Amino acid sequence: MSIRIMAVAAPELSESNIGTRVLSSEDPASLFNACRYAAFLAENDIGAWGDSNWATSRKLRRETFLLMHSLKESLQAFEKLLEGIQPNILLIGAMSICLPGAVACAKRAKELLGDDVCIILGGRHASETIYQGQDGRVVNHPGSPLRLMSEGRIPQVFDLVISGEGEHIIAWIGEKISDLESQKIQPTMISSYLQGSFQVPGKWIMGWINEGEVRAIKGKSGNFDRNLLVSPVEMFGVNSAFNVFPDRLTSHIFSDTGSGCVYDCEFCSERRSATGPLVQIETSGNRLFKQMKDTVSIIKTDSPSFGASAFVEDSTILGGSNIALNRLIELLSQEKLDIKFGGQFTIDQLSSRVEILKKMKDVGLSYLFIGMETLDPQSVGGISKDVKHGSETWLKRTENTIELLLSLEIQCGISLLFGLGESHDSRIRLLNQVRHWRKIYKSPHPVAFNWAVQHPLRGNDGKTGYRYTEWGLPSSSWLEAFRDFGEASVLYPIAGQKPPIFEEVQEIADFCSELLENDKYATINQKKGNNAS
């Protein structure tokens, strides 16, 4: 049977859409990454994918994707898409706080389509809760969807769960499902087709439930050549804009060095110990340049009235590698692409790369996003990226960075993160400091707010062992208080920390609202959607 596929990013909220000041996106960038190889096969009429519903234009292909923020507000759109596509493969991507939303979506899909659909869960939550232990065996964290289904804590609505790199295994599963003669896709039938999957490229684990027991297999072929990966923008186009790039559509681009960071901050889901080291960094500048070049070409073809821009979704651009950054500068200087781009660096990375920043500015860098989690990292036990803590204070180094970017005419955005163990007085002082900077420098903007959530982190979670089966924000009052925050939770505080106190959160929310009241970048909706840093 031919492949009919649909992909959904699960909602993080039970109800009430996110606030207008949240740096959010209409593009499910992680899903685009995971699905790009299957889309490449479809576009080039290769194998079973050449007969799938993705063997069409970029525009129509992206219409099979849905990014959900709120279950209540997005459920009707989800059901409409299910009814229109009648998928036999439903991909659901989820972060940990989105697991209840993923379960709800999968349950509804089973109610509407029964065994005619194979539901596959992937994303960061699966990758952080299903992993290889030191003895080589597959470990299921207490929050593992496989373990939760086997224990009866969530309904058995996921036919397969994929941890790790999905590009090639998703394409392989589609081919196997197309071989089935029956429209009914039973998990036991799927498992019978899994023989031979071990050599599918990538580091992945695939699991399912058989007679109430967890079953899992691991890929054995290891790393694959990132230089051969197609750009997500080639397969799915660009349909979003970020106001820091006026009159330009904005693509999400990646250097494809892995899903992690060079640093190992305990609170972060991208920490090195949970995601592994960066790979193929030596050719990463070439890959990032290619995605920029593809962005310019695709936007010119599909939306000629707009200019091109891109946000680099690396934890820090090219891992901060001087060699890779200089290679990117060299290629952009030669090609002279008409593109503006931005990304993330740490405060200490920026202070060490002033000359590189100047060159990057000359070839299109116009926006950088930095994180300032606290006034003093040492007060919360220290953070890995605070590499120069023996010199000037974190506060002074942050101010120096804002001044540096201002002098280079590079716009500076900032992310504030609460809930790491700082006092409430410290939070208010931090907000006052940001307000002072904005008064003096007219920067940073935009400002993003988050409340730290404990992630599973492949067991590096301080023995919290959260199962994530309940919505992180349990009531409408909490939803409203955290309305303009990105990631936030009441039920899943960082290990060793108490849950947030409502009155304190409300005071911070009121302060944030006042802080952003006259910020022309506070509302980021523009033209064809919005885009996130």
Give the SSE map.
Layout: E1 5-9, H1 29-43, H2 58-62, E2 65-67, H3 71-85, E3 89-93, H4 99-113, E4 118-122, H5 124-129, E5 130-132, E6 138-140, H6 145-150, E7 160-164, H7 167-178, H8 187-192, E8 204-210, E9 213-218, H9 232-236, E10 248-253, H10 272-275, H11 284-302, E11 307-312, H12 322-335, E12 339-344, H13 347-351, H14 354-362, E13 365-372, H15 394-407, E14 411-418, H16 424-441, E15 447-451, H17 476-481, H18 502-515
Parallel strand pairs: 1-2, 1-3, 3-4, 4-7, 10-11, 11-12, 12-13, 13-14, 14-15
Antiparallel strand pairs: 5-6, 7-8, 8-9
Helix pairs in contact: 1-7, 3-4, 11-12, 12-14, 16-18
What is the CATH-assigned architecture of the largest domain?
Alpha-Beta Horseshoe
Supply the CATH superfamily name of the largest domain.
pyruvate-formate lyase- activating enzyme
Side by side, the strands of the main sheet go 2-1-3-4-7-8-9
The count of domains is 2
Please report the total strand number as a whole number. Answer: 15
Based on Cα principal axes, name the global outline: globular
What is the name of the CATH class of the largest domain? Answer: Alpha Beta
* Cα Rg: 22 Å
As a percent range, the share of strand residues is 15-25%
The CATH topology of the largest domain: pyruvate-formate lyase- activating enzyme
Distance between the termini: 40 Å
Residue-averaged pLDDT: 91
Largest sheet: 7 strands, mixed
Structural class: alpha/beta
Low-confidence stretches: 520-533
Helix content: 25-40%
Number of helices: 18
